[in-house]
Amino acid sequence: MNWLPRPAERTAHVAPSLLAADFAALREEIENMEAAGADLLHLDVMDGHFVPNLTFGPFIVEAIRRCTRLPLDTHLMLVHPDRYLQQFIQAGSDAVTIHAESAADPAAALAEIRRLGARPGISLNPPTALDAIIPHLPAVDLVLVMTVMPGFGGQAFAAAGLEKIRELVRIRAEAGLDFLISVDGGINAETGAACREAGADILVSGSWLFQAPDRAAGIRALGG
Ligand code: DX5
Ligand code: ZN
Question: Which CATH number describes the domain made up of 13-223?
Answer without folding.
Answer: 3.20.20.70
